[in-house]
Specification:
- The chain is of the alpha/beta class.
- The chain has a single domain, classed as Rossmann fold.
- The protein has 6 helices and 11 strands.
- The strands form 3 sheets. Strands 5-2-1-6-7-11-10 form a 7-stranded mixed β-sheet, with helices on both faces. A two-stranded antiparallel ribbon has the order 3-4. A two-stranded parallel ribbon has the order 8-9.
- Helix 5 links the parallel strand 8 and strand 9.
- The longest helix is centred in the last third of the chain and has 14 residues.
- It is globular, with a radius of gyration of 14 Å.
Length: about 180
């Protein structure tokens, strides 16, 4: 139980990529972390791209970055909906500024751009949002995982094992 005593927030909104929520959620619970699903406040349950529901534990307005050791932003089209909610954007910005582990996969990079936390950082993401991240000041690389300080990014569901290993390593270093 490598993550016993750690608190991890996974952001959720409609049209999330199912594997990018459920794989880390179950993986980190398996490692002993307390995992909290944080929604935008628009619903108590969010439905993924393929119809699978995820119940929300708290809304972004009800929590603060200081309550978590890590924050995970899944992809799908959910990040485009998430960034329309100031409390979600603030949560990401605050977590990054506080040195918390902030991890985004696939289209999750949209939230990093909206939170203005990638200027000068090396990141990866789904290739379709490369231009958005570059225009936000990031150095884009095509790799299964990119780690730049407390920021961890990956491209797609196939990268989830490397993504989760990088998050676990980062959290273990903060013990």
């Amino acid at each position: 139980m490598k993550l016993k005593g750690k608190r991890v927030a996974i952001l959720a909104e409609d049209l999330y990529q199912e594997l990018e929520v459920w794989y880390p959620l179950l993986r980190f619970r398996e490692e002993g972390a307390e995992v909290v699903v944080v929604g935008s406040g628009s619903a108590q349950v969010h439905t993924g791209k393929y119809g699978y529901p995820v119940p929300v534990d708290k809304s972004a307005a009800e929590v603060g970055a200081h309550q978590f050791d890590a924050l995970i932003i899944p992809g799908g089209y959910a990040p485009d909906l998430m960034r329309r909610h100031p409390a979600m954007v603030s949560l990401v910005r605050d977590a990054a500024q506080q040195g918390k582990v902030v991890a985004a996969i696939c289209h999750g990079g949209w939230m990093l751009a909206s939170a203005e936390v990638i200027q000068g950082k090396t990141v990866t993401a789904f290739f379709a949002i490369k231009d958005d991240l570059v225009h936000a000041g990031a150095n884009f690389v095509d790799a299964e995982v990119a780690v730049d300080g407390n920021l961890i990014t990956s491209r797609k569901p196939e990268d989830l094992p490397a993504f989760c290993r990088a998050i676990i390593r980062a959290l273990e270093e903060k013990l």
